[in-house]
Amino acid sequence: MSVLPKALENLIEALGFLPGVGPRSAERFAYYLFKNDLSKSQAIAQAITSLSDEVKICPKTYALINAHEKVSRLYDAPNRDKQSVMVVADPFDIAAIEKTNAYKGTYHVLNGLISPIDGVTAETLHIAQLVDRVKQDNVSEIILATNASVEGESTAHYIAKQLETTKVKITRLAQGLPIGLDIEYADQITLGKALEGRRAL
Q: Is the Cα dihedral 7, 9, 14, 20 positive or negative?
């Protein structure tokens, strides 16, 4: 029999669904929310509730966009070069790269990296859509900005293979990015240098 109120148990269980949050961390978070100002909990609850209503995925780039937008502003803006497409694993990689102010092309989000052990195959990613974009937008360069990991390298090589019959130039971010580092956590200088030193695959 649990000694905790049911509502608290439910919150602990829900917080446990978050990646990297174990049972003890979930308990600490839940107790923090209970004992602190109610407005903080309400603000968090409201932000979570509004996610499904106010955020959607761009049908062209698969980046996260506001619900009222048809496509990503980073694709639609007249100053963005549609012939240059940077391929990233996750939407938050875009935010990290944009902070460098070193890239003025568009993006394509794969929604993960090929990892058979985790059940992620090429078919579950947005690779076929990328191939279509190369033709539709007359893309001249694909910049593969996947993480410097086994999964990232495997995905990059798979994409290059899919595009080998096209005339598109395929480059890879320079290995100024440390092995095993997610792009999302790289600093602006490292990302900027990696962009400048990208190489042909």
A: positive
